[in-house]
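Internal tracking record. Fields below are filled automatically when a chain is submitted to the structure queue. Please do not edit lines marked as system-generated. If the sequence contains nonstandard residues, flag them in the REMARKS field before resubmitting.
Queue: standard
Priority: normal
Entity type: single polypeptide chain
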Amino acid sequence: MSEHLRTALFLAALRIPVLPLRAGKVPFGNCDRCADNACGGRPNMKSPGLCACPGPCHAWAAATTDPRIIASPAWAWTWRHAAVVAYHPGGAGLTVVDLDNPAAVRWARETLPATCTVPTTRGEHWIYRGTMPSANAVRPGVDIKSLMAYARWLGHGAGITAPLPDSVRALAVKAPPPARRAPQSLTAPLSGRGGECPHRTPTYLERGVSMAVQRITAARSSIHATVYRTFLAVLSTHGRCGCLTDAHVARLFTAAQAKGETARHCTDAWTNARTALGM
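SYSTEM-GENERATED OUTPUT FOLLOWS
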């Protein structure tokens, strides 16, 4: 048994979903039909450890705590050739703030609550208890790895794992660009839980939903991440004032399902986006 496989089984026993990475921190295509992303990269979301091939495959969605999958013949070759063991932080209920250089580490020490830290090649991983959307380049040298992402396993680290703070959650929420006022005005206010909506017009809302549908439809990779981030953007702009209707949401879900997403994944992504925005 390889050292990587032993590590993977140890982590799985701790309920930390694991997967092998090859050189360059790149995930394996764990079967011939999925090599070089030939199958389109769509994991089977009903069973995240299994892809549609149906062998275990595809980055974070392949991460599993099932020792039968980890030690299966389908993964035997990957463990022998793996460069490192990775894990799905979100699946373990964790968020990793990946600090990629000394300047980013200094920023974290001055800004973020102390927590468990793990040294990396160029910086540190700060690990918090709780999950959130993953996001790259939230500030110079800082990535967030939690839901729908993977991180290298570099050891248990030092310090006590603190609860995920709002200061980290806020890093992944991008403020929408300021709305350009349309020349026409509403003939009747759009109302919702927040009351009247004086800063939106039907034209602005329709354009926003249409652009969101187009963004999902045009995606050629990272479908799950694209759907989630699009939902997050729509909700951050229109979700608090009550503009959105069931018809608007249905258009977004229909576009996502046309790209291979399941209804359940759409619902989960929408719910997670609302939670991230405190809605």
